[in-house]
Amino acid sequence: MQSVFRGRHFINLEDFTKEEVDTMLEVAFDLKKKFAMGVPTPYLLHQSMFLMFFEQSTRTRNSMEAGFAQLGGHAGFLDSSSMQIAHGESAKDTAIILSRFGHAIACRYCNWGYGNKYLTEMAKWSTKPIMNLQCDLYHPFQALADLMTMKEKIGDLKQVKVSIIWAYAESHKKPISVPVSQVLLFPRYGMDVVLAHPKGWELPDWVIAQAKANAEKYGGSVTVTDNEAEAYEGAQIVIPKNWGNWVTDQTGVAASGAVAVVDDKLKAHKSWKCTEAKMATADKNVLYMHALPADRNNEVEDSVIDGSHSIVYDEAENRLHTAKAVMTLLMGGR
Ligand code: CP
């Protein structure tokens, strides 16, 4: 078990060694067991932290808020539109002040080209840990919960075929941060990762290069394809989920949170939906995962997400346990 976590920022899982990620999982499993048994876990008694959101959230906000309370602390929710950020206050000043008031700052800012830079700037000035609740590039809490869920269901993940598959959606333009974090993390556990998407929805080249380097180091593999059928065929885990074509069309600032996201280019790929017929081509015990919220009947048929292969609610629950593990280690560890 690695134990030098206290005071570190949590912006990207690539900043942590595999042994450190293993430790996060061990702590998450322990916290999950204690939660199930009703054993109190007051590891962060009387601490306070701030949860800053530039965008909406259900799972991330509430796993952090409830999780921190269960650890004995108090988390204050901050909607960025009601902060002085709305009048132009800088990331530097916000980070310095809030880090003097409490013990950590967590932030979601998904705006393409801005989110990660904002978090990095806060991390430069904050005297307390900065935690990434999802930015334009990474969603480390989601990827960690996904990893925990896969280990819980399968155990050793070496040579398990996991397919991260682009899916059609109309609900809103989603960041690339979930597939980026997954494609970087899963090869570190020796998984055979297939990334499938239509032409035009590529992840950045540096992401694929790093994912392949991780695979090389840990004995996994990374295959990128525009052939959806190849991704489903024989897969033990499928993660069909929409992401926006942020990288290729560079839509920039106005794109974040946009409602009107449907155009002819997107509509041409309406067939990229997770269906029972496609699931039937996967391994007979295939697991269906999704970070949620799902765009039902666009990304996935109800019969799949509500069916026997779906583990989306276990996946969502693990957001709580992994969030508590990261907060405990960064704020309470030695
Ligand atoms: N998966 C996830 O991050 O969900 P929220 O957007 O509801 O936080």
UniProtKB/TrEMBL annotation:
Annotated PROSITE patterns: CARBAMOYLTRANSFERASE
Domain Aspartate/ornithine carbamoyltransferase carbamoyl-P binding: residue ranges: 8-152
EC number: 2.1.3.3
Residue ranges occupied by any Aspartate/ornithine carbamoyltransferase Asp/Orn-binding domain in the UniProt entry: 178-329
Keyword DNA damage annotated: no
Pfam name, any one: OTCace_N
UniProt family annotation: Belongs to the aspartate/ornithine carbamoyltransferase superfamily.
Protein name according to UniProt: Ornithine carbamoyltransferase
UniProt lineage: Bacteria, Bacillati, Bacillota, Negativicutes, Selenomonadales
